[in-house]
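Re: the request from the purification team.
They wanted to know what the chain is likely to look like in 3D before they choose a buffer screen. I agreed to run a prediction and write the result into the notebook, where they can find it.
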Amino acid sequence: MAKAQQPLLYVFLAIPVTYLVALIGFPVFYNLVMSVQDVNLGNISSMIRPFIGLDNYREVIADPSFRKVFINSILFVGVNVVAQIVIGLSVALFFSREFPGAGLLRGLLLAAWMLPALVVGALWKWIFATEYGLANAALTSLGLVDAGVHWLSDPRIALTSVTIANIWFGMPFSMILIAAALIAIPRELYEAAALDGAGAVARFRYITLPSLTATLLAVACLVTIYTMRAFDLIYAMTQGGPLDASNVLPLLSYQFSFQQFKFGIGSAIGTFSFVIVFVVALVYVRTLKKEAVS
């Protein structure tokens, strides 16, 4: 590279670095600082606050609601990862075949994914409404239930309801990534396998799945990161209720910070979420490096 181009390279590098430091690095650092301080409405505007070390973390871990919400978050993320990959792979395989209207259907799926999460939450809140919801109307007309199911107000199924909604919302993202990887698989491999007498199941098992391993791992990491940040959709549907049955870590952090005004505890909960997302992000980056080397 010519020496005259080096200053321009530094300028182009400085722009994204400055953006990351200002909009990502500083908020993360500030959250970590607040998590070891006693921050309330009386001193939040001051930069001088009592340092309490790990007391916020101890209080969070000892809180029964945190333990319940942490388990909810693990279940919510785990089911979303498995379901979005399985359904996304199935839909991607379906659309990998040429048929009339395939492009239109793919576009409709992506259009659903591009909707704001609050809009999707409001839509699914209407679908799961007890009295006039589409889900209960369909189940009643089919004779599967005698009375309306309390999808969002029953603690036993509230988490299931928001999980279904989030799977529907996030699945098109997984599908489009997997579909792109399917296109990259050489058609010659399938043709050779077909000539050797391999059936559809054998071709999927010995050609498709091995070729998609890195992509599926990357998709699992991305779905985990996005699902760990889920807030808008759950807030629109249940606000974490009833009795924290559908609550997750980002929403619990919001509740402590902006409803109970315990900003230090809210920051500590946010730190737990950040650590999980950071570890998964490292796995995702390593997956990308391995895929690039191979």
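For the purification team: The chain has twelve helices and no strands.
Please add any questions underneath this entry.
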